[in-house]
Amino acid sequence: MFRHFNNIETAFKHVKLFTFVIIAACMVICSFTVYESYRMVTKAQDRIYLLANGKALEAFSAERGDNIPVEARDHIRMFHHYFFSLDPDDKVIEDNIGKALYLADATARKQYEDLKEGNFYSSIISGNISQKISVDSISIDFQQYPYRFRYYGQQQIIRPTALVNRSLLTEGYLRNVSRSDNNPHGFLIERWRIIENRDINLQKR
Predict the structure, then answer these.
(1) Number of C-beta neighbours around residue 104 at 10 A
(2) Is 0.90 topped by the overall pTM?
(3) Residue 35, class by beta-carbon neighbours within 10 Å (0-12 exposed, 13-18 middle, 19+ buried)?
(4) CA-based radius of gyration for the chain
(5) DSSP 184-201
(6) CA–CA dist 183, 117 (Å, integer)
(7) Spatial separation of the C-alpha atoms in residues 160 and 124, rounded to whole Å
(8) Which residue of 37, 144, 146, 150 sits 20 to 30 Å from the alpha carbon of 159, by its own alpha carbon?
């Protein structure tokens, strides 16, 4: 009889141990499932799709700090592109300068007004002149804030009778501002000035 009780007690201990093992295994599996689900949802939220020309392009979100050098250089490049890309069309000039002035402070507007007062834009239109710009390099000091930069580029001035190539060197500072449709990078150029703008060569057409 005592042996019978011992068998029952041993069996109960085995069942109890087996139950604990099952419960522990279930908790481990549930925890792993919840963790993996959270990780996959988080990863999915970092992934977005952009529609361009009827095609869905996959993109990934990132922290602003990861992209500051890239965005800063593109901001500077786009400002100079809009400010110096001109055609003999007052609407084109107005649109480009308008876009450029959203990316910089009053120092850029002062430069624009000085050029306008000097009949620079009128001569572009009356002389059927086009002006293009290409960037050579952009250096930015990210060790100090606002970020100091220098822009090295070349201008090509297309006249009816000649092609003129000019070197361009400018400098200024970048500070952070809110992003908007007019300023997608969230930077503003301050204390901008032209250091050098001289002819490199001239070719007859």
Answers:
(1) 25
(2) no
(3) exposed
(4) 32
(5) TT-EEEEEEEEEEEEEEE
(6) 27
(7) 11
(8) 150
The neighbour count for residue 173, using CB atoms within 10 Å, is 20
Asked if residue 128 lies in contact with residue 160, where contact means CB atoms within 8 angstroms, the answer is yes
Cis peptide before 184 (omega within 30 of 0): no
Under 8 Å between Cβ of 150 and 144: no
Query: What would the two tokens of residue 151 be?
Result: 């822009």
Greatest alpha-carbon span in the chain: 120
Angle, in degrees to the nearest 10, between helices 90-101 and 64-84 = 150
Q: Is 105 helix (H, G, I), strand (E, B) or coil?
A: coil
How far is Cα 147 from Cα 71, in angstroms, rounded to an integer?
12
Tens of pLDDT along 53-68? 555 555 555 555 568 8
Tokens representing 52?
């361009």
Q: How confident is the model at residue 23 (pLDDT cuts 50, 70, 90)?
A: confident
Question: What values do phi and psi take at 181, rounded to 5?
Answer: -60, -35
The token pair that represents 197 in the structure block: 């703008």
- Per-residue pLDDT tens for 7-18? 666 766 777 777
Residue spans of alpha helices (H) in the chain: 2-45, 64-84, 90-101, 106-117, 120-126
